[in-house]
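Format notes (please read before filing issues)

Several people have asked whether sequences and structure tokens are stored in separate files. They are not. Every record keeps both together, in the order shown below: the sequence lines, then the token lines. Line labels are part of the format and must not be stripped during preprocessing.
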Amino acid sequence: MNQEGTVDVARTAARTTRAPSEPPLTPGENGRPVTPLQRQLAEPERQRPQPIDALRLARRTILDARRLDMQALAAELGVNRVTLYRWVGSRDELLVEVLWSMTRWRFNAIWAGLSDQVGPRVPEGLRQWIAITVESPGIRAFLYGESELAMRLLTLDSGGFQPRLLELIRERIADDIEEGRVNSPLPVDELAYATLRICESYIYLPVISGQPTDPEKAYRVLAVLMPPTDTPTPAVAAEPPAPVRPRRNSPRRHP
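Then the structure lines:
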């Protein structure tokens, strides 16, 4: 206040207003904590791609039926190839992660839709999965366009895909057995491995023999392998006895 007791408006305004040339308040200047969303909104140009972005972009590339090119992928991500390879390891490893992420998501979605089905669910679930796999243009382009690489990555234990798929199938078979849906004399591990190999055989039928993939045939074989509980348990053949070698007569000794 001045001597007359009135407020000096000009001086008050100078203290409370910000010069036009100053930047606007950024999150945190008011003393409140900054959320990750506010930080990204305030500095969008500083957002950098992450390894998960490489997976998502590679998955979209495969689904678009395009060959996965690491140089083009790095350029689209805005990183160099050294960074991309440090993130994903190699092209083969990235392909495995892409295909496994799609397989796990798709099969779990199929499985959720089979909760009300009576009897074994695994044969029907795998029938649907095989059909969706071979009908996808992007997956077909990879499986049959790079067939040698696909079989090496997806059907060998060393590729990293097969052990995870085997474990997924084993868990689902165990669920069916535990719920009393399946009647099989085979141990669950043997049943899961046989099931996996049957699925692989029918998926790669065009590559192996030139015949078209038939999910219905795979289903019929799997249904026999995993009969419902109201079916009599088939006997497991015992191992054949070891062959008996004929005994040689020792020569007679004459006195």
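For reference, the curators noted about this record: Residues 47-89 form one domain. The CA atoms of residues 15 and 198 lie 80 Å apart.
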